[in-house]
Design brief:
single chain, 151 residues, alpha/beta, Rossmann fold, 5 helices, 5 strands, binds 1,3,4-trihydroxy-5-OXO-cyclohexanecarboxylic acid
């Protein structure tokens, strides 16, 4: 049973514009659509879900710090901060929760500056290029991971 698991999904800058932003790259689903699909999947999986977005690095870091008390696993799409933010990496290391890195697009076949991630080596794994459905894959993978890690 996975009823007790609490999963936090964090979204970084400009992801509030999904649906209106470069739809050829990111698709036409809005972040609210993605949140709704994740909430439906979370009910099916029997897990508690928190869904969070901010455009501000410090706000993302505050939310990561708070997760220590409230979450079992973090799924994070740090958006452009993926490629620059040592502070987000440090916050994830500080809370020491399992992390799944998620990108809607395949960052490895885009501009070279997107190939580098400050968090991929501290994540359980990375989901890239699967579009908005990647969030559902991350949820499934996160629950599998937590079930496998249960003592
Ligand atoms: C992104 C990829 C990043 O390079 C970009 O800055 C984003 C979104 C993705 O989901 O594909 O904002 O994280």
């Amino acid at each position: 049973m996975s009823t007790k698991f609490k999963i936090l999904i964090i979204n970084g800058p400009n992801l509030n514009l999904l649906g209106r932003r470069e739809s050829s790259v990111y698709g036409t689903m809005t972040l609210a659509d993605i949140e709704e699909s994740c909430r439906t999947r979370a009910i099916e999986l029997g897990v508690e879900l928190e869904f969070f977005q901010s455009n501000h690095e410090g706000v993302l870091i505050d939310r990561i710090q708070q997760s220590k008390q409230h979450s079992d696993l973090i799924i994070i799409n740090p958006a452009a901060y993926t490629h620059t933010s040592i502070a987000i990496r440090d916050a994830l290391l500080a809370v020491d929760l399992p992390v799944i890195e998620l990108h809607i697009s395949n960052i490895h076949k885009r501009e070279s500056f997107r190939k580098h991630s400050t968090i991929s080596d501290i994540a359980i794994g990375q989901i890239v290029g699967m579009g908005p459905k990647g969030y559902l894959l991350a949820l499934d993978g996160g629950v599998n991971y937590l079930e496998d890690s249960r003592p």
